[in-house]
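Task 17 of the worksheet. Students: predict the tertiary structure of the chain below and write it out as structure tokens. Keep your answer in the requested format; marks are given for formatting as well as content.
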Amino acid sequence: MNKHLEELIELSKLDKSIDDFTPLIETAQKKLARRVQKRDEILEKIAELTETSEKAKTTIASYEEQIKALNEQLIASKAKFDMVTSEKEMKALSMETELAKEKLAHANAEIERHQAILDAKAAEIEEANKALEAANEELEKVSAEVNEKLANIDANKGRLFEERNSKTMALDMKILSFYEKIRVWARNTAVVPVKKQACYGCYMKLNDSTYASLIKSEEIITCPHCGRIMYLEAQTEEA
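Model answer:
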């Protein structure tokens, strides 16, 4: 087999080994991202619950101020009854008193309603904080696992990159450039075997002339259909 072709086959296998780490990295990163998302969703829920609780507290404080003002109004109205001199004044004062009592009853009801909301949200926040604690523990555990896995991948990739650099330094620059151009679009199928007289990059059958040239292995042959670099596997050569 052509020496340069042998070198390209080895380089192609190295490139494939390096690229095979990509899905492993993506899987590890996605696993970590899912845990981060889960943690962030809980934090967002706690923030929403806290906001609702603060609004309920503000509303309760507002109604408490109304109750205070209404009680003062009722006390003042009671004092006025002793000073009433006509039926018309009595009727107006009575209406004013009844209206104040209605507002007072409404304010008390609203305080009770918002206090129930506040109690419910407090219970939800407590549960959410427990879930957050568990999510943080899980995130910390997964983060350690993923970091260890990525560190191992980086170490293995580093060794392969060193080996690749050694091989590319020994390769003819024109041949390397030719390979890299094909690899831009063909990725890890830049160099493919030929089986049963067919290119295993595009699976198109080769004509007899191209196949004969490939058998001789005197030079680098590219597929006339797809342009990939081709080679015959050892078992095909023996056959």
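Marker's comment: Residues 3-171 form a domain with the Helix Hairpins fold (CATH 1.10.287.1490). The two ends are 15 Å apart (CA to CA).
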